[in-house]
Amino acid sequence: MKDIVDEINAVHRETGRRGIPAGEARTVLLRRTYDAPAEDVWDALTDPARISRWFLPITGDLRLGGKYQLEGNAGGEILQCEPPRLLKASWVYGEEPAEPGGSVVEVRLSPGPGGETVFELEHTAIVDPEWWAKYGPGAVGVGWDLALLGLGLHLRGESIGDPSAWERSPEARRLMTASSGAWGAAMAAAGATGDEIATAVANTTEFYVPDAGSAEGRDTTG
Q1: pLDDT tens digit string along 171-193?
Q2: Minimal CA–CA distance to 84: which of 52, 47, 29?
């Protein structure tokens, strides 16, 4: 596996706001380049057997207008599907309503000049202001950083092995800590104050990398 610093630096991160019909939404955006053709990246994102190798087991009708469910995580509806360049889906937990303009994940692929693929993931959601003040974009951003790491390893023919065991490893804790700090830098670029950044980074880091013996669980993608 690449060095943790290299993995963190491979991703460009942004956070912002977007006005949508249901209210004011927050956005997190991740961009990185994979040394693989767009068709292979697209297949890894849409083939259920491959998704389960780098992300989570998935069930459902994986076509435009179909519903999907990630095991123990989010589900929703496929809103747009334009292979091999655009995939957009609602992102809903449990029984919460999938309101128009609610939580949405959009993945965009574009070919690079040398056969590589530029990958962008943008997650847009209406967020409780108190929750955002406590955690900022890192609450979902760290989870997406882990997902992008898993995808990159899969495209290189590698694997982290048992995800549950790996997330407790020193290497994973370093990556999640560094990711939380990187999302703090994205907050700074978006105009957040020093106090806002410090609060969000500290709480997000504690959430993903709790002190030894903590029983607090983690949801790594949202």
Answers
A1: 999 999 999 999 999 999 999 99
A2: 47
Higher pLDDT, residue 218 or 45: 45
Taking the complete model, does pTM exceed 0.85, yes or no?
Answer: yes
Domain count, the chain: 1
Residue 196 lies in a domain: yes
* Residue 96 predicted with pLDDT over 70: no
Residue 217, pLDDT score: 41
Residue 181 falls within a domain, yes or no?
yes
* 17, HSE (Cβ side, Cα atoms, 13 Å): 9
Specify the residue for token string 């690079």: 112
Query: What's the CA gap between 117 and 104, in Å, rounded?
Result: 22
What is the chain's mean pLDDT, rounded? 89
Residues 6+ apart with CB under 8 A from 184: 136, 138, 197, 198, 200, 201
The whole domain housing 91 covers 4-208
Asked, for residue 140, whether it belongs to a domain, the answer is yes
Residue 130: which CATH number? 3.30.530.20
Q: How far apart are CA 45 and CA 115, in angstroms?
A: 18
**Residue 186 burial class via C-beta count within 10 angstroms: exposed 0-12, middle 13-18, buried 19 and up:** buried
Residue whose token pair is 């919460």: 96
